[in-house]
Structures are given as C-alpha cells and as structure tokens.
Design the sequence.
C-alpha cells in the first residue's frame, strides 16, 4: 500500500478475492481488493450497488453467505491473520473486538427482546457480566449514543423506537464490548437527513473518544465528505481509487470517481446539467478484460482492455487504478 | 411562465383516526398527517414538496391524485373542486393527473410485459384503440430512452433506472397535464438518478407538464423545481422560488435541512453552516403546541414559540415563512 502514515495499520486487506458459484456461473464479487485502516481512522468504502462493498465487509468478518467463498487474499487485523482463524476464534472476535452495524435496524434487532436485553446479551456473552451489571452498562451505552431517558428505554421493545433510535441501539450494541474496529454497512440510508447527520456526528464523537477504527460503507459521496478521513472507491469488485477524502472529491484522478461526482446534483448550481454515466455496470459473472470501467469510460484506449491495470500511487498519497488518470 | 394556477390547495386537512387498542371503542386520537395547508401550483410549474418522513408530503400528493379523501379543505383543478366531479368528469380527471412511484421494483407488475404495463392506462381509458396503441407504446419507449423492441420484455430484465423510465412512460401514456412524482429517484443508484432527473427535466419542457415532486432531497429539488414548499409535521413552514430559498433560507427548519444534506463538495462542506438538530421528529399523533418545530429549533426565541402557532406570512415578495422570528420583526 501507498500509505505514507507511520501509525501501524489496524486492518489490512490484501488482494482479497471472494466468489460466488451460482447455477454454473462464477460471480466474482470482490476482485483483488486491498486497503488498510489505522486505529482512530474513519475509512469510507463508496460505490454503486453491486460494486462489492458489502461482500468485502462480510469477508472481513468471515460471514460471506453460501455459496460464497473467499478464494484468495490476506486479511490482517491487529497483526493477526483472520483467514487462518478457526470458526470459534472468529466468533470470539465478532461482536467483541470487531463489530458491525447493518443497514436495516428493524430487521437486525430481535423483536421479541427488550432493548436492555439485546445490549446485555453481548455483555454477558463476551464480557461475562452478571445480569444486573449488564443492565447498568446497557443504560450507560444508551446514554453514550444519545438516547434520552436511557433507563426507561431499556424496557422498550425495538418496534417502539423510531428508526433513528433503533440505529442508535444498533450502535450501542456494536460498542458494548469496546471494539477496536466498527464496520458499518450503509447504516443511515433508511434515516431522514436531520437524523442521519446526528448519527454521523455521533460516530465522529465516539471515534474521538474511544479511538476505534471505523469502516463505513456507503453509496453516498456526500456522507463520505461529512464523515470520513479517507475513502476507497469501488467498482465491479475492484478498488478504482483511494486517498484522503478532500483530495479524492476535490480532484478525482479516476474517470469513474469523476463521473460519480458529476452525476450528483450540486447545491447552488441547478443550471449545470447532470452528467449521467452512460451504459451499465458489467455483469459480475462476465467481467471484461482489463479495467472494468473501460466500456463506459470517456478516456478509454485499446490498452485499457488488454491487461489488468495496477493500483498506482499518486502524488497526494492516494492511489488510482487507471492507465490514463486525470491530473 | 406562470398563468392561472392549475392546482389550488385550500386549507387541506387529513387526519387518520387511530384506535387505542382493538378492545377500546371509538377513535383514541388521530394522526394529523396534513393540518391546514394551502398552496397553488401554476400551469407548467414544477413544485418541490420537501420534508422528512411523517411531514405529510406524500399524503398531500395522494389527496391531489384523489387516492385519499381529505378530512376537510378542498383541492381545485383548473378552478373546479375535484371532490364534486361526476363519474365522467372523474374519469377525465384521472386521465389528466398521473403519478410516478418511488420504487420501480414493486410498482411494475412482474407478470406483465412493459408494453402491456405502458398500454394499461390506455386500455382502461379506451385511448389509442387498435394498432395506434402499439405504435404509441413504442413511441413512449423511445421517448424515455428505451428501445422499441423492449416492449416485449418483462420488468426483471431491466435495471432500476430503466424500470423507472418505464414508470415515467406509463405516466405519460395519456398525455397528462399534471404528474405527481413521489420520490422518483431515491431508490436509484447515482448514475441512474442523474439519467432520470435529466429525463424529467426534458419531458417537462417538451410537454409543458406541471409537476409536483415530493422528495426529502433538497439538491434534487433545486435541480428540478421552480418553487419549493417545505413541510414539517403536517404544516407548511416555508414557500419560495427555488433560487430565493437557497440564497436566503428563512425558516430555521429549512436551514437545518439544508445544512444536513450531504454534498460531495469538500470546500462547500467546510464552509457552510453546520446545524445538527437535537432530538427526534415528534409524533404527528400528538404534535407540539405552538410552532411544531419549537422542540428542536436552534433559534427558539421564547414562550411565543411554544404557545402561539405562527402563521405563514410573506416575508419577502413571493417568499413565505411560518416563524415568529419574522412576525416579531414585522410587528
């Protein structure tokens, strides 16, 4: 990797390949993804649906659903090789040192349990706390994530809470065992914008206070701009560009990143016609040779489709996978 | 471009009664989804109706579509109240008002070809009989940027953005005057979103359509709308021409909404005002007294906000806001 920073990496993903065998087809969902994340850093993974963002995260947790398989690559977390761990070791890790927040809070919270029990479960399981201690800690966690009147809320059921509150409960559960790494998969898409910004602000505060690393998956580059320190742009299972958020959004090097930004309506400039990206993303069962974006790219040359394009470092500390990057 | 208003909404109210439990008798309360709102939509104008979940924006649109009956108040279309139409007039009305739905996955029947989906409104209304219908279907497909031979395809063979094009073609099938777009791009990927917004912009000027667009995304509204109505908990808080609203946002809620929209422009992100509202959106079952926004307002100016409901008043020419900040200045 091209990271210039000296701090040791908390999470290193190297040349990750995850594939799904479906009905005689081989779907290459993640195709040689590499990135690293430092302690206390918020890294965004951005891209459109089908880019392989979620599968990358599930691969890190070793939760890829059948018939998916991690076929190649290395995932190192705090110096340890995650792919070499046994299922039991992974289970101890999940929810404790690495935890995850999902997109849809109502579907990930068991409707039959009270909020206090949902948070307490992880505490009794991983930390060996007694019932009373777990309840006390659960109340503290609810206060930490900004739920008013937390002690009363412990006895609420998930359906009694609003979407924003449910997502806060999810975050409280994820934080219950002081994780070193929080993985969040599109957790604010279902929320209203004024609630979304509260959650983004909360995550930033918690990062400052607890020093955890955060991996934040989103399809919204605006959220990346608000929240993240660095960003990885994915397309068709590959990293197209990475770098610090300001640099990538201000001066995108990859034509895909540039197109993605140009396709968004900008505040204050309604007269500027949007530039949609023509064509469709490639079929993951039948990826083109070379750069997967080449068939839709305005800069494509014959060379783009001939062989795989390497991820090359840029002068501003990022990296781009393009033969003819923007300067 | 403005002439006589095509649609006038007058003191529109919609309450949904709620029972406490199935054993308790009678309505226990009501969700006050829309609570006395008035606004006009001029012919050829695109109005954006903005707000968060539960503010009543979709309910308002559905009442204009005559899919819901108002609790009180009235809606005039071309000067005539839509509540009083007889059978034939109502059939004609439904031909003139059409709708584009939020979710292109659940709004298209998976067992019908897109040709028959687009032809369905024509079948019901007996429009374009015989071979004219097929050529109309092909014409519509091309109009929305699909190709004519795709008429025999099924919805699952299309991507999300293409399905939304089918939804737009269906809405245009009967040459409507007015189209209600309910969050037309919120379920689409970025690139498809841009295509649909451009398509809406093009067909609007080509057919001089009047559009009401409901969305929570203020940057989408800015791109398409001439005028914006901002709603909060069943009330209108601000109405302005799009450019005025963005240049000079009056209501504290609109300002907070504006500052909360994520934008991929890092310089703007650093420069602009950051307002993070406290608290949740209150329940429309029991909205706060006085100004409904006072529980979360960053510009709370005292008891007045809690006790007195602010009226929507014209603060600048054509720019209305319902906030005591401006009524205090005026008096």
Sequence:
């Amino acid at each position: 990797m091209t990271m210039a920073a000296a701090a040791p990496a908390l999470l290193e993903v190297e040349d990750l390949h995850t594939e799904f065998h479906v009905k005689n087809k081989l779907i290459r969902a993640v195709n040689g993804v590499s990135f690293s994340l430092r302690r206390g850093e918020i890294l965004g993974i951005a891209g459109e649906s089908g880019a392989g963002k979620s599968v990358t995260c599930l691969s890190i947790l070793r939760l890829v659903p059948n018939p998916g398989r991690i076929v190649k690559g290395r995932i190192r977390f705090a110096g340890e090789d995650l792919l070499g761990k046994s299922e039991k070791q992974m289970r101890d890790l999940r929810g404790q040192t690495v935890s995850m927040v999902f997109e849809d809070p109502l579907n990930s919270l068991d409707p039959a349990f009270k909020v206090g029990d949902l948070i307490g479960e992880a505490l009794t399981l991983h930390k060996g706390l007694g019932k009373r201690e777990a309840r006390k800690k659960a109340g503290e966690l609810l206060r930490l994530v900004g739920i008013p009147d937390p002690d009363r809320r412990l006895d609420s059921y998930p359906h009694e809470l609003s979407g924003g509150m449910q997502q806060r409960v999810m975050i409280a559960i994820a934080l219950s065992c002081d994780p070193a790494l929080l993985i969040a998969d599109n957790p604010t898409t279902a929320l209203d914008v004024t609630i979304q910004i509260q959650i983004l602000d909360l995550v930033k505060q918690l990062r400052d206070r607890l020093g955890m690393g955060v991996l934040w998956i989103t399809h919204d580059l605006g959220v990346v701009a608000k929240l993240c320190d660095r960003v990885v742009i994915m397309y068709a299972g590959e990293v197209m560009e990475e770098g610090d958020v300001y640099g990538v959004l201000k001066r995108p090097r990859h034509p895909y990143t540039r197109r993605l930004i140009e396709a968004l309506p900008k505040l204050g400039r309604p007269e500027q016609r949007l530039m949609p990206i023509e064509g469709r993303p490639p079929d993951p069962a039948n990826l083109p040779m070379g750069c997967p974006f080449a068939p839709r790219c305005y800069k494509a040359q014959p060379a783009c489709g001939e062989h795989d394009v390497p991820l090359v470092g840029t002068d501003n500390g990022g990296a781009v996978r393009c033969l003819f990057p923007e300067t | 471009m403005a002439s006589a208003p095509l649609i006038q909404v007058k003191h529109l109210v919609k309450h949904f009664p709620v029972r406490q439990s199935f054993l308790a008798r009678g309505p226990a309360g009501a969700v006050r989804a829309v609570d006395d709102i008035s606004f006009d939509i001029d012919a050829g104008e695109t109005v954006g109706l903005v707000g968060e979940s539960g503010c009543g924006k979709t309910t308002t649109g559905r009442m204009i579509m005559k899919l819901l009956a108002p609790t009180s108040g009235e809606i005039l279309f071309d000067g005539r109240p839509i509540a009083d139409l007889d059978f034939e007039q109502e059939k004609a009305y439904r031909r003139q008002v059409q709708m584009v739905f939020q979710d292109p996955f659940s709004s298209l029947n998976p067992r019908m070809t897109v040709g028959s989906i687009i032809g369905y409104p024509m079948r019901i209304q007996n429009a374009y009989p015989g071979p004219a219908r097929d050529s109309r279907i092909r014409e519509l497909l091309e109009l929305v940027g699909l190709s004519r031979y795709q008429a025999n395809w099924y919805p699952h063979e299309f991507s999300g953005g293409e399905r939304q094009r089918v939804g737009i073609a269906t809405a245009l099938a009967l040459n409507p005057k007015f189209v209600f777009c309910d969050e037309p791009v919120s379920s689409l990927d970025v690139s498809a979103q841009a295509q649909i917004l451009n398509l809406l912009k093009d067909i609007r000027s080509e057919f001089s359509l009047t559009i009401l667009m409901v969305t929570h995304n203020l940057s989408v509204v800015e791109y398409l709308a001439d005028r914006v109505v901002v709603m909060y908990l069943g009330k209108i808080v601000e109405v302005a021409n799009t450019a005025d609203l963005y240049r000079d946002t009056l209501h504290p809620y609109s300002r907070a909404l504006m500052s909360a929209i994520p934008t991929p422009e890092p310089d703007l992100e650093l420069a602009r005002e950051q307002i993070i509202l406290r608290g949740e959106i209150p329940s429309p079952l029991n909205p706060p007294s006085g100004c409904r926004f006072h529980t979360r307002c960053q510009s709370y100016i005292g008891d007045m906000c809690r006790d007195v409901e602010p009226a929507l008043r014209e603060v600048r020419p054509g720019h209305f806001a319902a906030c005591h900040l401006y009524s205090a200045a005026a008096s």
